[in-house]
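Hey team,

Filing this mostly as a record. A colleague (T.K.) asked me to run one chain through the structure pipeline before their review meeting, and I want the input and output archived in the tracker in case anyone asks later how it was produced. No errors, nothing strange. Just documentation.

Input sequence:
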Amino acid sequence: MAPKGKVGTKGKKQIYEENEATLKFYTRVILGANVIYAAVNFLIFYSSSTFWTWLLLGFALAVYAGSYRSMSAMAKPVFAEDGGLLDGGIDLNMEQGMAEHLKDVILLTAIVQVLSTVSSYFWYLWLLAPARALHLLWVNFLGPWFMAESPSAPEEVNEKKQRRQERRQTRRF
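Output structure:
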């Protein structure tokens, strides 16, 4: 049974600690995916690595850097001069927040990067990210804007007003 009443809120300290743990987890995900990719492509299959192997590694690193830096900037805490926590930053574990999408991008990139050690065609799975972005754009902004009902026609004039208008028009002529 769901709890009744107001949903509990998190304190600054709890948000700060959870953000630190979240950033630590995603650092490990990024490092793990890159270690696996580098070990397979540059140590084991070095002779068959091509320009595309390096280019896609650079792409993955750019995606990781952009997403991780955005998350760390969002979670940046503010401390007082005496060392007390004034603000724990934005909650990275909040549902439906921008951080959720950034975490999804990091996980998608890590999964694609590790799978690409089997076949380079797995990089095409990264096209899911722009597809998801377009879906969110349509559902949240464009769809409601295009499907919005046009302003309703002026209210029907009741019979009395219509008769008055007809009489006025006949008097003028």
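Quick notes for T.K.: The chain has a mean pLDDT of 85. The chain is about 65% helix and 5% strand.
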